[in-house]
Amino acid sequence: MRFLIKEGKLIPKLDSSDDETTFSISNLPEIPQLSTNPFFEYNPELQKMLAGKQLLIDELPFTIDEIQAHYENGYLVYRKGIQKQENRPHGSSGVTEKHTNLPRICVRCGTSDESWFGEFPCARCGERDIYCPKCLMMGRVSECTPLVCWVGPESDFPVVDRPLEWAGSLSEGQQVASQRVLDAVKTTSELLVWAVAGAGKTEVLFAGINEALTSGKRVCLATPRTDVVLELTPRLKKAFPQTKIASLYGGSEERHEFTQLTIATTHQLLRFYKAFDVMIVDEVDAFPYSIDETLQYAVQQSRKLDSSLIYLTATPSKQWQKECRLGKRKYVTIPARYHRHPLPVPKLEWSGNWEKMLTKGKLPANIIKWIETRQASRRQALLFAPKIASMEKILPILRKMDPLIESVHAEDPDRKEKVMKLRNKEIPILLSTTILERGVTFPNIDVAVIGSEDRIFTESALVQIAGRAGRSADFPTGEVVFFHYGKTEAMLSARKQIEMMNKEGIKKGLIDV
Amino acid sequence: MLCHEEIEPEISWRSFLGKDQAPKICTECKDSFAPITGEKCEICGRPFDFLEEEYRIGNICMDCKRWEENEEWSGSLDKNRSLYRYTDFTKEVIARFKFRGDYVFADIFTEDIKTVLQAFQYDYIVPIPLSDERLYERGFNQSEALIKAAGYTPTHLLTRIHSEKQSKKSRDERIQIEQVFKMAEGVEIECKTILLFDDIYTTGSTLRHAAKVLKQNGASKVMSLTLAR
Ligand SMILES: [Zn+2]
Ligand SMILES: [Zn+2]
Ligand SMILES: [Zn+2]
Ligand SMILES: [Zn+2]
After folding, report:
1. Pairwise CA distance, residues A397 & A406, whole Å
2. Best of A130, A140, A415 to disrupt the B interface by mutation (most B CBs within 10 Å)?
3. Helicase ATP-binding domain: which residues (chain A) (predicted)?
4. Closest alpha carbon to A236 in A245, A228, A227
5. What distances in angstroms separate CA A263 from CA A69, A219, A259, one per listed residue?
6. Which whole-number Å values give the CA distances from A127 to A414, B10, B209, in the listed order?
7. Cα distance between residue A89 and residue A292, in whole Å
8. Which of A43, A90, A394, B211 would suit a FRET pair with A423, their CA atoms being 20 to 30 Å apart?
9. Neighbours of A506 (CB within 10 A)
């Protein structure tokens, strides 16, 4: 769309047929912001939908006239969807020249790498527009697209005395972390919670969330994976039954709810803008968050400038671990599991050139032996392979040993079913790509990795994989083996990390020896 | 093989195409488009392989036979050809391009469109127009984008008749003179061959409406090409 500037105001023009000089929003040197008219009767529905958000006009079920009235009375602002990072005034018009080589940034998702952008002849503004394909699924942001944000008064949340209704108890390790989270909420500061797989990290958040809700703060629990949103939502609804909770992921319906507590995929955060007083990011190490700057950007721009930021992870990156050691990052560890048993430490076993053997339809003898041992003792196992291609070669070999053995990968339509079957003990051994490295838990299994030298098995992936074993209090032990064709740094670091956590757990008296 | 990595659904399409502005499609994905081959209906290009025997009448399909038996529509559209079958995969790619508005997706089809256009003899290639509301909503006309991406110049011979005006008329009136398109002014098409272009052939009704207007205005032959059907 195009805008007209009249009496210091932007006026949207839906058709470009007029004689008046109109502009695409990205070409304006600055966008006039208007002072708030206290007598204006704003629409509370629009307020609910837009407070703490950045939405496209197309996403708002209100007429352009009503939206514009809120702008003219200082209740909302138009921001550039695509911003030229340096705005050099051009000529006497003060309007910047289009298609110079100024670097651009998509203001919604933060993409600035030019190779991502696309270009098209835009019927809305009549110019050739740059648009952002990266966040396209949330509606196209192009150079003439304004992002609409609320700047009027925010509505308060209903006060609840004791939002937390949870009767469970915390382990010693959890208690320490819980107190630190509470402090981070009270002092609006940053904290990393480094909790081993099976430590029970969700419960550690309850006191902090309770504190935030009681003091009228808006809280977001974000995670890169939809699975986690779906898993956390009922747990939090149960713990905070009086609080309105929005659960947002690709395809969810609750997009426009105004709630005090939001559980969302990090991707959904792109619709928020300076919304949250407390931002909690779960599984910071999980793909694709750790490799995707967009999602970092989403976390930063969706929280208020003055807000708490709490990260949860079982395996922080090398960089973060270093920052923790050097005292540059505030953190707390939960080095032991809830059941007070140490984490199973992975064994590293050389298995030779397993890929070459696979081409001959064979598996290394020690891997075969490992499987036979599971069969003899009737223990279930998860077996990880680096690629779908190698998995397809391994499966027939295993099926000769037991026809009930199954394999699963990311795009397997029966993925959920197979996981369920393993849980019901209908499958003795499940062969998997890295998709089952986290989240999914089975009470009593052994774990092995074939080809653990592959670069897909990063330190954090291997720690997560090892974390699948020994999860339940009834079966706190389990065997973890990395079968490899050459030890990698990731393998050694993963083992070291696990040993270090066990040591710390023992030292702090959180593990029974 | 970027397309087979596990990624959040929102970003997987771009990864599938690679990061370059002009999307490069990997052979595996390219093979996922099901090209229409083998015997087909002489008029609408429907592949007989996927049709029950009783819906085939000689060299044409049952639908086309019905159109041709109708005095009003007989001979309006001379021939349609479509590149791919409208499979779930094609549907998804077209949706990303047309509804989500990822314009650069048009480039995916460039090669195939170029190849098939060589088989057509025509004077003008004409995209099916969108209504003003649709055009604003999408920001571009998908058919026009496809023609341009393939390096051809579209001619705008048709405009859409405003649909709101239509709904005000009585039902009888509408059935009688249901007109979707009218001729744009200024181009002479007497004795010309026109190639219509649309993204999808569904019932063939849109294309026949367009073809009829063109024939009424003197076109000697009207054919059409769609991406999918
Ligand atoms: Zn973007
Ligand atoms: Zn535009
Ligand atoms: Zn592909
Ligand atoms: Zn036919």
Report:
1. 11
2. A140
3. 182-334
4. A245
5. 32, 9, 10
6. 47, 27, 31
7. 33
8. A394
9. 15
Q: Are the beta carbons of A315 and A285 closer than 8 angstroms?
A: yes
**CB-based contacts of A153: which residues, under 8 Å, 6+ apart?**
A47
Task: Answer for the pair B65, B206: CB distance below 8 angstroms, yes or no.
Answer: no
Annotated domain spans of chain A = 2-150, 172-334, 347-507
Q: What is the largest CA-CA distance in chain A?
A: 85
Per-residue pLDDT, averaged over A248-258, amounts to 80
Q: Which DSSP category does B35 fall into?
A: B
Average pLDDT, chain A: 89
Q: What is the CATH number that goes with domain A347-507?
A: 3.40.50.300
8 Å CB contact between A80 and A10 = no
Q: Which of A193-207, A250-264, A366-380, B52-66 has the lowest mean pLDDT?
A: A250-264
Under 8 Å CB-to-CB from B161, ≥6 apart: which residues? B179, B180, B181, B182
Enumerate residues 6+ apart whose C-beta is below 8 A from A330. A184, A189, A190, A191, A192
Write the single-letter amino acid at B217: N
**CA A224 from centroid of its chain's CA atoms:** 2
Q: Residue B65 and residue A108: Cα distance in Å, rounded?
A: 52
pLDDT higher than threshold 60 for residue A291: no
Of the candidates A460, A465, A462, A433, the one whose C-alpha atom is nearest the C-alpha of residue A446 is A465
Closest in A116, A124, A250 to B136, CB measured: A124
Q: Is the Cβ–Cβ distance between B226 and B146 less than 8 Å? A: no
Percent of chain A at pLDDT > 90 equals: 66
Domains A172-334 and A347-507 share a fold: yes
Question: Does B68 touch chain A if contact means CB atoms closer than 8 Å?
Answer: no
CATH 3.40.50.300 corresponds to the domain A172-334: yes
Q: What is the pLDDT of residues B6-43, one digit of tens each?
A: 233 334 444 444 444 444 566 667 778 889 999 999 99
Residue B195 Cα to ligand 4 middle (Å): 17
What is the separation of C-alpha A428 from the centre of its chain, rounded to a whole number of angstroms? 32
Angle at A331 between CA A328 and CA A335, to 5 degrees: 135
Asked if ipTM goes beyond 0.90, one says no
Task: Single out the residue of A255, A278, A262, A261 nearest to residue A185, CA to CA.
Answer: A278
Residue A510, both tokens: 């959180």
Q: B104 touching A, CB under 8 A?
A: yes
Q: Tell me the per-residue pLDDT of A331-385, one tens digit each, with 9 for 90 and over.
A: 999 999 989 999 999 999 999 999 999 999 999 999 999 999 999 999 999 999 9
Give the ligand with the smallest distance to the CA of A54.
1
Q: Which residues of B touch A135 (CB under 8 A)?
A: 10
What does the pLDDT read at residue A30? 83
CB atoms within 10 A of CB B18: 15
**Rounded to the nearest 10 degrees, what angle do helices B110-117 and B142-149 cross at?**
80
What are the backbone dihedrals phi and psi of residue A108, each rounded to the nearest 5 degrees, phi first?
-75, -45
Strand partners, B60: B57
Token readout for A312 is 């949860």
Give me the residues near ligand 1 (ion), CB cutoff below 5 Å.
A 106, 108-109, 111, 132, 134-135
Q: Which two tokens stand for residue A311?
A: 């990260």
For chain B, what percent of residues have pLDDT higher than 70?
81
Record the tokens describing residue B84, joined without a space.
Answer: 């791919």
Q: Are A70 and A76 in contact (CB under 8 A)?
A: yes
Average pLDDT over all residues of chain B: 84
Q: What is the pLDDT of residues A442-454, one digit of tens each?
A: 888 999 999 999 9
Please write the tens of the pLDDT for every residue from B82-126.
999 999 889 988 999 999 999 988 988 998 999 999 889 999 999
Predicted local confidence at residue B177, as pLDDT: 53
Structural domains in chain B, CATH included, are 27-228 (3.40.50)
Give chain B's length.
Answer: 229
